[in-house]
Design goal:
The protein has helices at 40-51, 63-75, 95-98, 121-124, 129-132, 134-142, 175-178, 192-203, 249-260, 311-322, 343-346; strands spanning 19-25, 56-60, 83-86, 101-104, 112-116, 146-148, 150-151, 154-155, 164-165, 170-174, 207-211, 228-232, 235-239, 271-275, 282-283, 286-287, 296-297, 302-306, 328-332, 347-351. The protein is an alpha/beta fold. The strands form 7 sheets. Strands 3-2-1-20 form a 4-stranded mixed sheet.
Length: 353
Amino acid sequence: MDKTPADLGFHMPAEWEPHEATWLGWPHNKTDWPGKFAPIPWVFGEMARKIAPGEIVRIIAAPDVRRQAERVLTRAGVDLAKIEFFNFATNRGWTRDFGPFFVKKDMQPGEVAIVKFRFNAWARYANWKKDDAVPVRAAKRLGIRMIPAMIGDKDFVLEGGSIDVNGKGTVLTTEECLLDPVVQVRNPGFGKQEVEQALRENLGVTNVLWLGHGIVGDDTHGHVDDLCRFVNPKTVVIIQESNPNDVNYRPLHENRERLEGMRLEDGSKIEVVSLPTPSPLYFDDWRLPASYANFYISNAAVIVPTFNDPNDRVALGILSELITDRPVVGIHAVDLVLGFGTLHCLTQQQPAR
């Protein structure tokens, strides 16, 4: 196909814009939560309970997994009339990264399409082909256009957690994730200029902002959704570590300094607000990527991961002051983060037409 999504007038809306649905991949791969899988479906049930009052929840689940999902959702008090199941096989449940990337046109009536980025399990794991097929199957099931994402003449590898947009033309990402030439290389042989062009063409953005490193323990190698997020077109929250002896302290402060010198698509400065970090969480000797930045903005509520930490209340308070048009609620994520991700990593929004 010669024309890119941007050529066709598509762009990726901001997460706070109205949704038709939220997509979730129901959990089934027990290796993602070794020894702690039992509570994980119940966290999904709580997520669905908070999201469903405002939009459809589209759950990806093979038939045997669907039966468990229905039991959990019913017992969690979720209105099953707001649930739609999609019988797709998956390798894992991290829908933000492999699920359909939805873009839309602003003209009326609006058109929503799927941009098909290639997914290769963060250039880290061998089992990814079922996940990579989900956007194609979703486009067919929904009866909407699917546009392949390209970088030159090759498929463009991109995960949803590696970018965040303000819906007006600016995208945030990190050099660690998309430009590292050695570790978990998504698009070998392509540098900053080529990646920026691919982001512009496939997301409909005009302004690419690069942060440096993500947080320690993130096995995606630098996803921005654990680090820094837009909460409105001109404001971002960025996590900051207060302990100068913590390994995250220096890179997080360097990222804030970068942001304060950056400009948005219209040339204006970004309003930068700090979010705290919880106390470090570990699985054996592995630092887990516990972050309040991994929140998800649904129509009915902002759901925020919490960690039985004194800073839970601080983070919820900051986000409540910034996002005032819907409630901000916490969801316990101490078990969930053992899978190296939390709420935003597990969700993907489908914009309303």
